[in-house]
Amino acid sequence: MDGMDMGGTDDHSSGGSASSSAMTMVMSMVFQTDIQTAVYARSWTPHSVGAYAGTCIFLIVLAVIARLLVAFKSRQERIWADKAAQRRYIVVNGKEPMSERLSRDPDAKHMTMVLSENGVEESVVVVERKHSPVRPWRFSVDPVRAALDTVIVGVGYLLMLAVMTMNVGYFLSVLGGTFLGSLLVGRYSSLPYH
């Protein structure tokens, strides 16, 4: 097409290689079915139908692992919450009892009641929380939570990169693995991860 400048250099000046390399660098944003589609590295390019099938099976397994990790983290969160709820708190000498602090707190909605068990009566304060408190940072919980989140996000990004190749087989493999993983352990996961 004469007279149209495609943004490349003129063939008469510095050579036509800059224009042709710029055109090959443009990524096509349409689904394709080429079995020789690299995934993660140029060295991981299937050159046969068997290698392509192996790559698709790897992506299915990786998507299942992603769903397993989400279910595992959800289960761990429930375990950590149960352990936090079962912790016993003790009264320290010289510290003001919580009931006295709560009676002066204008934000706390509370009422005093008497509990009776086996003939022993005890005065207690019943407190209604306005919001759920943030649990304290724990060395036994928070680094494990951070590591799990990092692994989940890393696996998710690997799956996303495979889908971004726009290869139909890779895309269907990730969807199939997600379906299979959710079918296996979806009932254990309370968080809707993508």
Automatic annotation (TrEMBL):
Ranges where the record places region Disordered: 1-20
Protein family according to the UniProt entry: Belongs to the copper transporter (Ctr) (TC 1.A.56) family. SLC31A subfamily.
Short name of any one Pfam family annotated for the protein: Ctr
UniProt topology in membrane: Multi-pass membrane protein
Keyword annotations of the record: Copper, Copper transport, Ion transport, Membrane, Transmembrane, Transmembrane helix, Transport
Transmembrane segments: 49-70, 146-164
Keyword Transport: yes
A single cellular component GO annotation: plasma membrane
Protein name: Copper transport protein
Subcellular location: Membrane
Main subcellular location of this protein, as a coarse class: membrane
Coiled coil: none
Family matches, as InterPro entries: Cop_transporter (IPR007274)
Domain of life from the UniProt record: Eukaryota
A GO term for molecular function: copper ion transmembrane transporter activity
Organism: Trichoderma cornu-damae
